Amino acid sequence: MTIISELARWAIPFILFFVPLYGYLHKVPVYETFVEGAENGFKTAVKIIPFLIGMLVSIKVFVDSGALDLLINLLRPLFLAMDWNPDLLGIIPLAVMRPLSGSGALGVATELIHQYGPDSFIGRLASTLQGSTDTTFFVLAVYFGSVGIKKHKYALKVGLLADAVGLIASIWIVSRVFG
Amino acid sequence: MVNLIWLVMLICGIIVAALNGNIDQVTASALQASELGIEVAIQLMGVMSLWLGIMHIAEKAGLIRHLARISAPLVRKLFPSLRADSPAFGPIVMNLCANILGLGNAATPFGLKAMQELQKENPDQETASPAMITFLALNTSCITIIPATIIAVRMKAGSANPVEIIGTTVFATGCAMASAIIADVLFRKRNGL
């Protein structure tokens, strides 16, 4: 594990060291080329603003109004019917929040970890779930928005299916490994 | 489908707020979210500029081409519609690497760059191409070896072993990724692509 975390710590400094040096040795005008590329960062960030705002408004109204809590309550019987560990009910807010909002999900996960304890069943499950799925709606809006794609076809279905599988797999493996 | 979900979240939110007697919350939330959108975009602007600048150097120096060639046998299979020498492979691979290492901030610029390259080969500029959807599916379900943020949260919460969830995370994300790839291939076949 220490090797992996060291790798993560060194990855970015290594890239910042290696790429410009390699470029210079291959006769690339490094500073000018950097600036040329960086210019696109500004343009791309501006282009995604409408898509970001559209997504965030809808999600925030849904969450703040209490509609999310309502949805969670509606899902409760479904979880109970599966005859799973009753502790599992605690994970529903995170499961629903995860595809919608990255910062929202991190908030919910942090709350769960503190409320139940990091080494509890829910704490471990929340950690696993948080690490194993991504904010599907955000990625979809931003990535497609940046190039002006308006028709998404089956992209959302694939993304949400992966989220659902990630949830089920997390529950299964955490129950298995930590009992 | 996105249209419908977007509308349902907005309408349901407003109806629930009205029923709960806190309709003012809708106004406040909508305005806050608009401001948040700008904040997120401005934060992205800096990271994006940094990584797109570095990547432009890597491109000019031929590094991206090398990277794409090394990883080609595996990644190319997932994108049958792309030319074997497509310039999209470089940023796709860099995005996946950044995701695997849990470098979330660095992953987004590479992902957006990949989308721009994919868009150049897309016959219909308003409709997502199969390759774009495959890339998105890989991106949202990508294996993460180091879930750094959540390890930090566990550490702060006083966990006896903050990193013990790495194994379960890799397993869960592996299942999610496999199902995304399978579902993507099935959808593609159903759509005759």
From TrEMBL, chain A:
InterPro entries with a match to the protein in the record: Gate_dom (IPR011642), SpmB (IPR052549)
Regions that span the bilayer: 7-25, 154-174
Pfam families: Gate
Coiled coil: none
GO cellular component: plasma membrane
Chain ranges of the Nucleoside transporter/FeoB GTPase Gate domain: 46-150
Keyword Transferase: no
Keywords noted in UniProt: Membrane, Transmembrane, Transmembrane helix
Name of the protein in its database record: Spore maturation protein
Source species of the chain: Dehalobacter restrictus
UniProtKB/TrEMBL annotation, chain B:
Alphabetical list of Pfam families matching this protein: Gate
Keywords, comma-separated and alphabetical: Membrane, Transmembrane, Transmembrane helix
Tree of life domain: Bacteria
Positions of transmembrane segments: 38-58, 133-153, 165-187
Nucleoside transporter/FeoB GTPase Gate domain span: 42-152
Name assigned to this protein: Nucleoside recognition protein
Organism: Dehalobacter restrictus (strain DSM 9455 / PER-K23)
